[in-house]
Amino acid sequence: MKKRTNIRSESRKPVDKSGVSxxxxxxxxIYLRDLKRLHLNGTDVxxxxxxxxxxxxxxxxxxxxxxxxxxxxxxxxxYQVSSLISSLQEILSTDSETRIALVGAGKLGGALLEYSGxxxxxxxxxxxxxxxxxxxxxxxxxxxxxxxxxxxxxxSAEGLKTGIICVPASSAQSVCNLMVSSGITGILNFAPAKLxxxxxxxxxxxxxxxxxxxxxYFQK
Amino acid sequence: MKKRTNIRSESRKPVDKSGVSxxxxxxxxIYLRDLKRLHLNGTDVxxxxxxxxxxxxxxxxxxxxxxxxxxxxxxxxxYQVSSLISSLQEILSTDSETRIALVGAGKLGGALLEYSGxxxxxxxxxxxxxxxxxxxxxxxxxxxxxxxxxxxxxxSAEGLKTGIICVPASSAQSVCNLMVSSGITGILNFAPAKLxxxxxxxxxxxxxxxxxxxxxYFQK
DNA sequence: TAGATTGTTAATCGATTAACAATC
DNA sequence: TAGATTGTTAATCGATTAACAATC
Lengths: 220, 220
Fold this sequence. Notes:
The structure is a homodimer of 220-residue chains.
Chain A: H1 22-40, E1 45-46, H2 48-55, H3 59-67, E2 79-80, H4 81-91, E3 98-103, H5 107-114, E4 123-130, E5 139-140, E6 143-147, H6 151-158, E7 162-165, H7 169-181, E8 186-189, E9 202-205, H8 208-219
Parallel strand pairs in A: 3-4, 3-7, 4-6, 7-8, 8-9
Antiparallel strand pairs in A: 1-2, 5-6
Helix pairs in contact in A: 1-4, 2-3
The first copy, chain A, binds a DNA duplex (24 and 24 nucleotides) through residues 1-2, 4, 6, 8-9, 11, 21, 23-24, 47-49, 58-61, 63-64, 66-67, 71-79.
Protein backbone atom coordinates (compact mmCIF):
# COMPACT_ATOMS: atom_id res chain seq x y z
CA MET A 1 0.00 0.00 0.00
CA LYS A 2 1.06 3.52 -0.73
CA LYS A 3 -0.58 6.79 0.06
CA ARG A 4 -0.44 9.84 -2.06
CA THR A 5 0.53 13.23 -0.75
CA ASN A 6 -2.43 14.96 -2.08
CA ILE A 7 -3.16 18.37 -0.67
CA ARG A 8 -5.78 20.11 -2.76
CA SER A 9 -6.57 23.79 -2.66
CA GLU A 10 -10.23 23.11 -1.88
CA SER A 11 -11.61 24.78 -4.97
CA ARG A 12 -14.03 21.91 -5.35
CA LYS A 13 -14.00 19.70 -2.34
CA PRO A 14 -13.19 19.57 1.34
CA VAL A 15 -9.47 19.52 2.06
CA ASP A 16 -8.07 16.08 2.61
CA LYS A 17 -7.57 14.48 5.95
CA SER A 18 -5.03 11.78 5.39
CA GLY A 19 -4.15 12.31 1.76
CA VAL A 20 -7.18 10.53 0.35
CA SER A 21 -9.27 12.66 -1.94
CA UNK A 22 -13.00 13.27 -1.47
CA UNK A 23 -13.65 11.66 -4.84
CA UNK A 24 -12.14 8.40 -3.62
CA UNK A 25 -14.22 8.49 -0.44
CA UNK A 26 -17.38 9.17 -2.39
CA UNK A 27 -16.67 6.21 -4.63
CA UNK A 28 -15.89 3.95 -1.69
CA UNK A 29 -19.33 4.75 -0.32
CA ILE A 30 -20.83 3.89 -3.69
CA TYR A 31 -18.92 0.61 -3.75
CA LEU A 32 -20.17 -0.19 -0.28
CA ARG A 33 -23.77 0.42 -1.28
CA ASP A 34 -23.48 -1.85 -4.29
CA LEU A 35 -21.69 -4.56 -2.33
CA LYS A 36 -24.51 -4.60 0.20
CA ARG A 37 -26.98 -5.05 -2.62
CA LEU A 38 -24.89 -7.90 -4.04
CA HIS A 39 -24.67 -9.48 -0.62
CA LEU A 40 -28.46 -9.46 -0.30
CA ASN A 41 -28.63 -11.10 -3.71
CA GLY A 42 -26.44 -13.89 -2.40
CA THR A 43 -23.24 -13.01 -4.23
CA ASP A 44 -20.23 -14.32 -2.35
CA VAL A 45 -17.30 -13.31 -4.51
CA UNK A 46 -16.98 -10.58 -7.10
CA UNK A 47 -14.25 -9.35 -9.41
CA UNK A 48 -13.30 -5.74 -9.93
CA UNK A 49 -14.49 -6.14 -13.52
CA UNK A 50 -18.00 -7.06 -12.46
CA UNK A 51 -18.48 -4.36 -9.88
CA UNK A 52 -16.99 -1.79 -12.23
CA UNK A 53 -19.51 -2.80 -14.86
CA UNK A 54 -22.35 -2.35 -12.36
CA UNK A 55 -21.19 1.12 -11.49
CA UNK A 56 -20.00 2.40 -14.84
CA UNK A 57 -16.35 2.83 -13.90
CA UNK A 58 -13.17 0.98 -14.84
CA UNK A 59 -11.91 -2.02 -12.87
CA UNK A 60 -8.62 -0.24 -12.35
CA UNK A 61 -10.29 2.67 -10.64
CA UNK A 62 -12.00 0.33 -8.22
CA UNK A 63 -8.74 -1.41 -7.37
CA UNK A 64 -6.82 1.84 -7.18
CA UNK A 65 -9.32 3.36 -4.81
CA UNK A 66 -9.12 0.34 -2.52
CA UNK A 67 -5.33 0.42 -2.65
CA UNK A 68 -5.38 3.67 -0.69
CA UNK A 69 -6.31 1.59 2.33
CA UNK A 70 -4.76 -1.84 1.86
CA UNK A 71 -5.21 -5.09 0.02
CA UNK A 72 -8.67 -6.58 0.15
CA UNK A 73 -8.82 -9.07 -2.68
CA UNK A 74 -7.30 -12.39 -3.68
CA UNK A 75 -5.32 -12.50 -6.89
CA UNK A 76 -6.79 -14.76 -9.48
CA UNK A 77 -10.05 -14.90 -7.54
CA UNK A 78 -11.59 -11.55 -6.69
CA TYR A 79 -13.11 -10.04 -3.56
CA GLN A 80 -15.18 -11.74 -0.93
CA VAL A 81 -18.27 -9.58 -0.72
CA SER A 82 -18.94 -9.92 3.00
CA SER A 83 -15.40 -9.21 4.09
CA LEU A 84 -15.03 -6.27 1.72
CA ILE A 85 -18.23 -4.84 3.16
CA SER A 86 -16.75 -5.11 6.65
CA SER A 87 -13.53 -3.47 5.55
CA LEU A 88 -15.28 -0.58 3.85
CA GLN A 89 -17.60 -0.09 6.79
CA GLU A 90 -14.61 0.22 9.03
CA ILE A 91 -12.82 2.66 6.72
CA LEU A 92 -15.95 4.75 6.31
CA SER A 93 -17.17 4.24 9.88
CA THR A 94 -20.59 3.17 8.70
CA ASP A 95 -20.92 0.85 11.66
CA SER A 96 -21.97 3.62 14.03
CA GLU A 97 -24.96 5.83 13.35
CA THR A 98 -24.46 9.46 12.32
CA ARG A 99 -27.08 11.73 13.84
CA ILE A 100 -27.74 14.94 12.00
CA ALA A 101 -29.22 18.37 12.69
CA LEU A 102 -31.29 19.89 9.91
CA VAL A 103 -32.07 23.60 9.67
CA GLY A 104 -34.93 24.71 7.44
CA ALA A 105 -38.21 22.86 7.84
CA GLY A 106 -39.57 23.62 4.37
CA LYS A 107 -40.57 21.25 1.61
CA LEU A 108 -37.04 20.11 0.93
CA GLY A 109 -36.31 19.61 4.61
CA GLY A 110 -39.46 17.54 4.89
CA ALA A 111 -38.47 15.45 1.91
CA LEU A 112 -35.08 14.75 3.44
CA LEU A 113 -36.69 13.65 6.69
CA GLU A 114 -38.59 11.04 4.67
CA TYR A 115 -35.72 10.10 2.40
CA SER A 116 -35.14 6.39 2.64
CA GLY A 117 -31.64 6.40 1.13
CA UNK A 118 -30.03 7.65 4.33
CA UNK A 119 -30.65 4.60 6.45
CA UNK A 120 -28.39 2.23 4.54
CA UNK A 121 -25.52 4.55 5.44
CA UNK A 122 -26.65 4.76 9.06
CA UNK A 123 -27.55 8.40 8.64
CA UNK A 124 -30.42 9.78 10.70
CA UNK A 125 -31.76 13.29 11.00
CA UNK A 126 -32.38 13.56 14.70
CA UNK A 127 -33.26 17.24 15.14
CA UNK A 128 -35.05 19.78 12.96
CA UNK A 129 -34.85 23.54 13.39
CA UNK A 130 -36.47 26.59 11.86
CA UNK A 131 -36.59 30.30 12.54
CA UNK A 132 -40.20 30.84 11.50
CA UNK A 133 -42.41 31.27 14.62
CA UNK A 134 -45.28 29.79 12.60
CA UNK A 135 -43.43 26.53 12.29
CA UNK A 136 -41.68 26.24 15.64
CA UNK A 137 -43.41 23.70 17.86
CA UNK A 138 -45.33 22.15 14.98
CA UNK A 139 -44.44 18.74 13.65
CA UNK A 140 -42.89 17.73 10.37
CA UNK A 141 -42.71 14.06 9.50
CA UNK A 142 -43.48 13.28 13.11
CA UNK A 143 -40.73 15.43 14.51
CA UNK A 144 -41.13 18.64 16.51
CA UNK A 145 -39.61 21.68 14.85
CA UNK A 146 -37.27 23.43 17.29
CA UNK A 147 -36.41 27.09 17.51
CA UNK A 148 -33.12 27.68 15.77
CA UNK A 149 -32.12 29.84 18.73
CA UNK A 150 -31.82 26.63 20.72
CA UNK A 151 -29.60 25.03 18.09
CA UNK A 152 -26.38 25.24 20.03
CA UNK A 153 -27.88 24.04 23.28
CA UNK A 154 -29.66 21.05 21.75
CA UNK A 155 -26.97 19.88 19.36
CA SER A 156 -24.23 20.21 21.94
CA ALA A 157 -26.24 18.19 24.43
CA GLU A 158 -26.74 15.47 21.84
CA GLY A 159 -23.22 15.67 20.53
CA LEU A 160 -24.29 16.26 16.92
CA LYS A 161 -21.44 16.99 14.55
CA THR A 162 -23.17 17.05 11.17
CA GLY A 163 -25.68 19.53 9.80
CA ILE A 164 -27.90 19.99 6.77
CA ILE A 165 -28.75 23.48 5.53
CA CYS A 166 -32.10 23.77 3.76
CA VAL A 167 -32.71 27.50 4.12
CA PRO A 168 -32.71 30.17 1.40
CA ALA A 169 -29.38 31.46 0.14
CA SER A 170 -29.81 34.72 2.00
CA SER A 171 -29.68 33.09 5.42
CA ALA A 172 -27.38 30.19 4.61
CA GLN A 173 -24.18 31.85 5.81
CA SER A 174 -25.63 32.84 9.17
CA VAL A 175 -26.98 29.32 9.71
CA CYS A 176 -23.56 28.00 8.76
CA ASN A 177 -21.88 30.27 11.29
CA LEU A 178 -24.31 29.12 13.96
CA MET A 179 -23.57 25.51 13.15
CA VAL A 180 -19.82 25.99 13.25
CA SER A 181 -19.95 27.85 16.54
CA SER A 182 -22.03 24.99 17.93
CA GLY A 183 -19.42 22.39 17.10
CA ILE A 184 -20.74 21.10 13.77
CA THR A 185 -17.80 20.13 11.53
CA GLY A 186 -19.55 18.65 8.49
CA ILE A 187 -22.28 20.40 6.52
CA LEU A 188 -24.44 19.35 3.61
CA ASN A 189 -25.56 22.58 1.99
CA PHE A 190 -28.58 22.79 -0.30
CA ALA A 191 -28.63 26.59 -0.40
CA PRO A 192 -27.24 28.12 -3.59
CA ALA A 193 -24.53 30.03 -1.79
CA LYS A 194 -20.83 29.52 -1.19
CA LEU A 195 -20.35 29.06 2.54
CA UNK A 196 -17.29 30.63 4.09
CA UNK A 197 -15.79 28.43 6.77
CA UNK A 198 -12.45 27.43 8.20
CA UNK A 199 -10.49 24.62 6.62
CA UNK A 200 -11.38 22.23 9.41
CA UNK A 201 -15.06 22.37 8.43
CA UNK A 202 -16.15 20.13 5.58
CA UNK A 203 -18.90 21.28 3.29
CA UNK A 204 -20.61 19.36 0.51
CA UNK A 205 -22.85 21.37 -1.78
CA UNK A 206 -25.87 20.06 -3.62
CA UNK A 207 -26.94 22.58 -6.22
CA UNK A 208 -29.91 21.08 -7.99
CA UNK A 209 -30.71 24.02 -10.22
CA UNK A 210 -27.15 24.23 -11.53
CA UNK A 211 -27.00 20.50 -12.19
CA UNK A 212 -30.25 20.57 -14.07
CA UNK A 213 -29.51 23.70 -16.03
CA UNK A 214 -26.02 22.53 -16.96
CA UNK A 215 -27.49 19.54 -18.76
CA UNK A 216 -29.12 21.74 -21.35
CA TYR A 217 -25.82 23.04 -22.63
CA PHE A 218 -24.85 19.57 -23.77
CA GLN A 219 -28.29 18.62 -25.04
CA LYS A 220 -28.57 21.32 -27.70
CA MET B 1 -9.94 32.80 -27.85
CA LYS B 2 -8.89 29.20 -27.98
CA LYS B 3 -10.74 26.01 -27.40
CA ARG B 4 -9.35 22.87 -25.90
CA THR B 5 -9.70 19.50 -27.51
CA ASN B 6 -11.00 17.84 -24.49
CA ILE B 7 -12.68 14.50 -24.98
CA ARG B 8 -13.32 12.86 -21.64
CA SER B 9 -14.13 9.22 -21.15
CA GLU B 10 -17.30 10.04 -19.24
CA SER B 11 -16.25 8.38 -16.02
CA ARG B 12 -17.72 11.28 -14.11
CA LYS B 13 -19.63 13.59 -16.34
CA PRO B 14 -21.51 13.81 -19.61
CA VAL B 15 -19.26 13.72 -22.63
CA ASP B 16 -18.40 17.12 -24.03
CA LYS B 17 -20.26 18.73 -26.82
CA SER B 18 -17.88 21.33 -28.16
CA GLY B 19 -14.81 20.65 -26.07
CA VAL B 20 -15.99 22.53 -23.00
CA SER B 21 -16.06 20.47 -19.85
CA UNK B 22 -19.14 20.06 -17.66
CA UNK B 23 -17.26 21.63 -14.78
CA UNK B 24 -16.83 24.82 -16.75
CA UNK B 25 -20.51 24.89 -17.67
CA UNK B 26 -21.52 24.34 -14.08
CA UNK B 27 -19.35 27.21 -12.97
CA UNK B 28 -20.67 29.50 -15.69
CA UNK B 29 -24.15 28.87 -14.34
CA ILE B 30 -22.92 29.74 -10.87
CA TYR B 31 -21.33 32.93 -12.19
CA LEU B 32 -24.56 33.84 -13.89
CA ARG B 33 -26.55 33.39 -10.71
CA ASP B 34 -24.18 35.58 -8.74
CA LEU B 35 -24.08 38.25 -11.45
CA LYS B 36 -27.86 38.46 -11.38
CA ARG B 37 -27.74 38.97 -7.64
CA LEU B 38 -25.11 41.68 -8.07
CA HIS B 39 -27.20 43.32 -10.76
CA LEU B 40 -30.19 43.49 -8.44
CA ASN B 41 -27.93 45.06 -5.84
CA GLY B 42 -27.07 47.78 -8.33
CA THR B 43 -23.52 46.72 -9.14
CA ASP B 44 -22.54 47.93 -12.61
CA VAL B 45 -18.97 46.75 -12.96
CA UNK B 46 -17.11 43.95 -11.24
CA UNK B 47 -13.59 42.55 -11.37
CA UNK B 48 -12.73 38.89 -11.57
CA UNK B 49 -11.15 39.27 -8.13
CA UNK B 50 -14.39 40.38 -6.55
CA UNK B 51 -16.62 37.74 -8.08
CA UNK B 52 -14.06 35.06 -7.32
CA UNK B 53 -14.09 36.16 -3.69
CA UNK B 54 -17.87 35.88 -3.58
CA UNK B 55 -17.77 32.37 -4.94
CA UNK B 56 -14.69 30.97 -3.27
CA UNK B 57 -12.67 30.40 -6.41
CA UNK B 58 -9.61 32.07 -7.93
CA UNK B 59 -9.89 35.05 -10.28
CA UNK B 60 -7.91 33.13 -12.88
CA UNK B 61 -10.43 30.34 -12.95
CA UNK B 62 -13.21 32.79 -13.60
CA UNK B 63 -11.32 34.39 -16.47
CA UNK B 64 -10.18 31.06 -17.86
CA UNK B 65 -13.70 29.71 -17.87
CA UNK B 66 -14.97 32.75 -19.75
CA UNK B 67 -12.10 32.49 -22.23
CA UNK B 68 -13.63 29.28 -23.57
CA UNK B 69 -16.26 31.47 -25.20
CA UNK B 70 -14.65 34.80 -25.96
CA UNK B 71 -13.57 38.07 -24.37
CA UNK B 72 -16.13 39.69 -22.15
CA UNK B 73 -14.21 42.14 -19.99
CA UNK B 74 -12.27 45.38 -20.34
CA UNK B 75 -8.63 45.33 -19.33
CA UNK B 76 -7.85 47.63 -16.48
CA UNK B 77 -11.55 47.95 -15.69
CA UNK B 78 -13.39 44.67 -15.21
CA TYR B 79 -16.70 43.29 -16.45
CA GLN B 80 -19.92 45.15 -17.01
CA VAL B 81 -22.44 43.14 -15.03
CA SER B 82 -25.42 43.58 -17.33
CA SER B 83 -23.60 42.73 -20.52
CA LEU B 84 -21.86 39.73 -18.98
CA ILE B 85 -25.26 38.46 -17.83
CA SER B 86 -26.51 38.74 -21.40
CA SER B 87 -23.49 36.93 -22.76
CA LEU B 88 -23.75 34.09 -20.27
CA GLN B 89 -27.47 33.75 -20.84
CA GLU B 90 -26.82 33.36 -24.50
CA ILE B 91 -24.06 30.79 -23.97
CA LEU B 92 -26.17 28.83 -21.51
CA SER B 93 -29.47 29.47 -23.32
CA THR B 94 -31.14 30.67 -20.16
CA ASP B 95 -33.29 33.08 -22.12
CA SER B 96 -35.80 30.40 -23.11
CA GLU B 97 -37.64 28.32 -20.52
CA THR B 98 -36.73 24.65 -20.05
CA ARG B 99 -39.79 22.53 -19.35
CA ILE B 100 -39.17 19.32 -17.49
CA ALA B 101 -40.88 15.97 -16.92
CA LEU B 102 -40.58 14.50 -13.45
CA VAL B 103 -41.17 10.84 -12.67
CA GLY B 104 -41.79 9.82 -9.07
CA ALA B 105 -44.39 11.81 -7.17
CA GLY B 106 -43.08 11.06 -3.70
CA LYS B 107 -41.81 13.42 -1.04
CA LEU B 108 -38.72 14.37 -2.96
CA GLY B 109 -40.65 14.92 -6.16
CA GLY B 110 -43.06 17.13 -4.27
CA ALA B 111 -40.21 19.10 -2.77
CA LEU B 112 -38.72 19.69 -6.22
CA LEU B 113 -42.07 20.92 -7.53
CA GLU B 114 -41.96 23.57 -4.82
CA TYR B 115 -38.28 24.32 -5.10
CA SER B 116 -37.83 28.03 -5.73
CA GLY B 117 -34.27 27.82 -6.99
CA UNK B 118 -35.29 26.57 -10.42
CA UNK B 119 -37.04 29.69 -11.61
CA UNK B 120 -33.97 31.90 -11.78
CA UNK B 121 -32.59 29.48 -14.36
CA UNK B 122 -35.89 29.39 -16.24
CA UNK B 123 -36.44 25.78 -15.25
CA UNK B 124 -40.00 24.59 -14.81
CA UNK B 125 -41.36 21.15 -14.06
CA UNK B 126 -44.35 20.96 -16.37
CA UNK B 127 -45.44 17.33 -16.01
CA UNK B 128 -45.42 14.85 -13.13
CA UNK B 129 -45.73 11.08 -13.51
CA UNK B 130 -46.01 8.08 -11.23
CA UNK B 131 -46.74 4.39 -11.59
CA UNK B 132 -48.70 4.01 -8.36
CA UNK B 133 -52.47 3.74 -9.15
CA UNK B 134 -53.13 5.31 -5.74
CA UNK B 135 -51.39 8.48 -6.83
CA UNK B 136 -52.39 8.75 -10.48
CA UNK B 137 -55.03 11.40 -10.99
CA UNK B 138 -54.42 12.99 -7.60
CA UNK B 139 -52.72 16.32 -7.28
CA UNK B 140 -49.31 17.21 -5.96
CA UNK B 141 -48.41 20.85 -5.48
CA UNK B 142 -51.38 21.73 -7.63
CA UNK B 143 -50.42 19.47 -10.50
CA UNK B 144 -52.21 16.33 -11.65
CA UNK B 145 -50.12 13.18 -11.39
CA UNK B 146 -50.15 11.37 -14.74
CA UNK B 147 -49.83 7.69 -15.42
CA UNK B 148 -46.27 6.91 -16.35
CA UNK B 149 -47.65 4.76 -19.17
CA UNK B 150 -48.62 7.99 -20.89
CA UNK B 151 -45.13 9.41 -20.51
CA UNK B 152 -44.10 9.10 -24.11
CA UNK B 153 -47.33 10.43 -25.49
CA UNK B 154 -47.48 13.47 -23.25
CA UNK B 155 -43.82 14.47 -23.31
CA SER B 156 -43.58 14.04 -27.08
CA ALA B 157 -46.63 16.21 -27.59
CA GLU B 158 -45.15 18.90 -25.37
CA GLY B 159 -41.67 18.51 -26.80
CA LEU B 160 -40.05 17.92 -23.41
CA LYS B 161 -36.38 17.03 -23.60
CA THR B 162 -35.35 16.98 -19.94
CA GLY B 163 -36.37 14.60 -17.19
CA ILE B 164 -35.97 14.19 -13.44
CA ILE B 165 -35.93 10.72 -11.89
CA CYS B 166 -37.20 10.56 -8.32
CA VAL B 167 -38.06 6.87 -8.08
CA PRO B 168 -36.34 4.16 -6.02
CA ALA B 169 -33.10 2.68 -7.35
CA SER B 170 -34.83 -0.54 -8.35
CA SER B 171 -36.99 1.16 -10.99
CA ALA B 172 -34.59 3.93 -12.02
CA GLN B 173 -33.16 2.14 -15.04
CA SER B 174 -36.54 1.27 -16.50
CA VAL B 175 -37.73 4.86 -16.05
CA CYS B 176 -34.52 6.01 -17.69
CA ASN B 177 -35.11 3.71 -20.65
CA LEU B 178 -38.64 5.02 -20.98
CA MET B 179 -37.37 8.58 -20.96
CA VAL B 180 -34.72 7.93 -23.57
CA SER B 181 -37.13 6.12 -25.87
CA SER B 182 -39.47 9.11 -25.53
CA GLY B 183 -36.88 11.57 -26.74
CA ILE B 184 -35.51 12.87 -23.43
CA THR B 185 -31.80 13.67 -23.79
CA GLY B 186 -30.96 15.15 -20.40
CA ILE B 187 -31.69 13.50 -17.06
CA LEU B 188 -31.26 14.61 -13.48
CA ASN B 189 -31.14 11.40 -11.47
CA PHE B 190 -31.82 11.30 -7.74
CA ALA B 191 -31.95 7.51 -7.56
CA PRO B 192 -28.86 5.84 -6.10
CA ALA B 193 -28.16 3.84 -9.26
CA LYS B 194 -25.84 4.19 -12.20
CA LEU B 195 -27.98 4.69 -15.28
CA UNK B 196 -26.86 3.02 -18.47
CA UNK B 197 -27.48 5.20 -21.50
CA UNK B 198 -25.96 6.06 -24.83
CA UNK B 199 -23.31 8.74 -25.05
CA UNK B 200 -25.73 11.23 -26.54
CA UNK B 201 -27.79 11.23 -23.34
CA UNK B 202 -26.56 13.46 -20.55
CA UNK B 203 -27.07 12.40 -16.98
CA UNK B 204 -26.35 14.34 -13.81
CA UNK B 205 -26.53 12.42 -10.57
CA UNK B 206 -27.43 13.83 -7.19
CA UNK B 207 -26.58 11.32 -4.51
CA UNK B 208 -27.49 12.93 -1.22
CA UNK B 209 -26.70 9.98 1.01
CA UNK B 210 -23.22 9.58 -0.43
CA UNK B 211 -22.49 13.28 -0.14
CA UNK B 212 -23.59 13.33 3.46
CA UNK B 213 -21.86 10.13 4.45
CA UNK B 214 -18.63 11.13 2.74
CA UNK B 215 -18.35 14.14 5.01
CA UNK B 216 -17.87 11.99 8.05
CA TYR B 217 -14.64 10.51 6.78
CA PHE B 218 -13.01 13.91 6.89
CA GLN B 219 -14.60 14.99 10.13
CA LYS B 220 -13.07 12.25 12.27
C1' DT C 1 2.18 57.82 -18.22
C1' DA C 2 1.19 54.75 -14.05
C1' DG C 3 -2.00 51.62 -12.16
C1' DA C 4 -5.26 48.20 -12.78
C1' DT C 5 -7.07 44.25 -14.63
C1' DT C 6 -7.89 41.20 -18.45
C1' DG C 7 -6.73 37.24 -21.56
C1' DT C 8 -3.46 33.63 -22.50
C1' DT C 9 0.73 30.81 -22.51
C1' DA C 10 3.45 27.75 -19.98
C1' DA C 11 4.16 25.19 -15.73
C1' DT C 12 2.30 22.50 -12.25
C1' DC C 13 -0.50 19.44 -10.13
C1' DG C 14 -3.51 15.60 -9.45
C1' DA C 15 -6.44 12.08 -11.22
C1' DT C 16 -7.10 8.41 -14.47
C1' DT C 17 -5.45 4.76 -17.22
C1' DA C 18 -2.17 1.48 -19.43
C1' DA C 19 0.92 -1.89 -18.64
C1' DC C 20 2.60 -5.49 -16.09
C1' DA C 21 4.58 -8.09 -12.25
C1' DA C 22 2.79 -10.75 -8.43
C1' DT C 23 0.24 -14.55 -7.04
C1' DC C 24 -3.90 -17.26 -6.27
C1' DT D 1 1.32 -25.40 -14.90
C1' DA D 2 -2.09 -22.23 -17.27
C1' DG D 3 -5.57 -18.93 -16.56
C1' DA D 4 -7.40 -15.39 -13.95
C1' DT D 5 -7.31 -11.40 -11.44
C1' DT D 6 -5.18 -8.38 -8.09
C1' DG D 7 -2.04 -4.54 -6.70
C1' DT D 8 1.17 -1.09 -8.28
C1' DT D 9 4.37 1.52 -11.17
C1' DA D 10 4.79 4.52 -14.92
C1' DA D 11 2.57 7.12 -18.58
C1' DT D 12 -1.02 9.95 -19.92
C1' DC D 13 -4.39 13.18 -19.65
C1' DG D 14 -6.86 17.16 -18.19
C1' DA D 15 -7.67 20.79 -14.96
C1' DT D 16 -5.78 24.41 -12.16
C1' DT D 17 -2.53 27.92 -11.31
C1' DA D 18 1.52 30.97 -11.99
C1' DA D 19 3.44 34.24 -14.73
C1' DC D 20 3.09 37.81 -17.80
C1' DA D 21 2.04 40.39 -22.03
C1' DA D 22 -1.73 43.21 -23.65
C1' DT D 23 -4.34 47.12 -23.01
C1' DC D 24 -7.81 50.02 -20.80
